[in-house]
Each structure stands twice: as C-alpha cells, then as structure tokens.
Amino acid sequence: MRFIFDKLVKTSLFHVLLFWVVNLYSVTFRIKLVNEEEWLIHVRRGEKVLLCAWHQQFFAAIRPFRKYRKFNPSLMISKSSDGDIVAGVANKCGWHVARGSSSRGGKEALRSMIEQLKRSGLAAHIVDGPKGPAGKVKAGVIQLAHAADALIVPFYTYADRAWYFNSWDKFMLPKPFSKVIISFGEVIKLMPAKDQNIFESQKLYLEGIMVPCLRAEPNPN
C-alpha cells in the first residue's frame, strides 16, 4: 500500500488535484497580509530577499504566495514522500523547487537555491527543516542568505480558529472560514560570518526573533 501511495504522489494528476483542493480550501480563509510592502520594495529595487517561516505555519501562505510567482521565486523541499506532495503543489503555484534537506541532497539543493535567488531576487525557506526539532533554526537559512547576499524576512501565520496536529511541529491548519493573518517581520541583514562562532550567534539571533511566534494552541479570541 505504501509503495502505491509513493507512486501516486509523484504523478502530475495527483499534484493538479491536490493543488485545487488546497486552493479551494484556502479560499475560505479571510486573509490579511501585514507589512508586505516593507520587504517588497527591496525586491523591486533589485535586492535579494529570503522569506522564512517555521514548518508549523506554512500552509496558510500557499494560496496568497501565488501572487509572487511573477518574481520566479524558489523554495527548498525535502526528497521525502511528504516532500513530493508539497513540491507538486509549490510547482503548480509557480515556485521553483529545489529538492533536498540536511539529511539528503542538501548541498545540491542549496546550490540550486543560491543560483535561483541570485537570478530572481526572491526565495522562501523553512528554517527548522522538514523534521525539526521545532523552534531550532538550522544552518541553511544563514548559509543561503550569506551566499546570495540576501535580506532575511521572517513571516508568521496566525489563525483565530485552527487545528494543531500531533506532530513534531504541532502543524497548524486553519479551520474553514477562519481569520488568518500573515505578518512579515522586520528586514534583517546579516553580515558574512568570519568564523563559526559568529555564524552560530547569527542562528541564535534569528531563532530568538522567531521563537516567540511559534503557536502552541489556537488564539483565545
């Protein structure tokens, strides 16, 4: 059964169907984007911008982020079966997908991301990767920002009503017709790290900014 499922999720038909399911579900959300112009202005100036989020919160951004396809943006997704599903939807949304993670194909995917970000000016990255641990920023986002000379812009998703899965990241799925706010943080510029200590301090700095916005339970209101 698992073999059949793995084959199915790789098919174009499955990706098309899932793309429409995700979009039809997401169209019920009442979405508000906050501070979007603060980073878009940098892309329009020809600067490089790297949007980043926790794995927990990416779902609600799938549909509204279709609007950025005109920039030919890129996104790194793991080579797992779950990654096949997300990659198929991302491709349909107009995002260039580099396949790989820290456990498999990461170096090749990172190189592809760097090249694409330098060309297009926009990319997105899941800072805690496909397997976590939650609340821990991995090295990829810092390496990518340094190599492409990119500005880092964290974004966070809030929903007034949501389900939280029993997974490592407490994955958040907004309920139908919920109010969803996608809030972009301040633009962050990290200077090239001269040694590993500085690199690690930059990871912790970004982590300190983003951790308070992890969601443990639905908003009380």
What does this structure look like?
With 221 residues, this protein is of the alpha/beta class. The chain has one domain: 3-Layer(aba) Sandwich (Glycerol-3-phosphate (1)-acyltransferase), CATH 3.40.1130. The protein is 38% helix and 21% strand. The protein is built from 7 helices and 9 strands; from the N terminus they run ααβαββαβαβαββββα. β7 and β8 form a beta hairpin.
Rg, rounded, reads 17 Å
Oligomeric state: single chain
Quickly give the structural class: alpha/beta
Overall geometric form: globular
Weakly predicted, low-confidence segments? none
Largest sheet: 7 strands, mixed
State the helical fraction: 25-40%
Q: What's the end-to-end separation, in Å?
A: 42 Å
- In N-to-C order, the SSE pattern is HHEHEEHEHEHEEEEH
Q: How many H/I helical runs?
A: 7
Query: How many E strands?
Result: 9
